[in-house]
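Researcher: Please predict.
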Amino acid sequence: MTRVLLDEERAAELAEIFRLLGDANRLRIAVACLDQPLCVSDIAQQVGLSASLVSHHLRLLRAARFVRAHKEGKQVFYVSADEQARCVIKDMVSHVGAHRDATDDEG
């Protein structure tokens, strides 16, 4: 296995991304954007939040380069920035699900 080392700058950048994803609403928004581009109103409907709150969270996720945006007409669509971002989220969702299933089996 390759040993991973982080310099101070990269550690700070990574910590900021984890801090952003530490908010349950932002995490749900990031998950909604994993597989296909969605407009703000569709994301808001999926996660049960107002469009203005979703827009606020998307600005933060976009600044952290976790999602990217493209405009079609008057609507802006958001999707995960890259495959690595998708993998991080999908792996952690799978990890939590596996942990929950193991805990349920023990009880």
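Model: The beta strands are 38-39, 67-72, 75-80.
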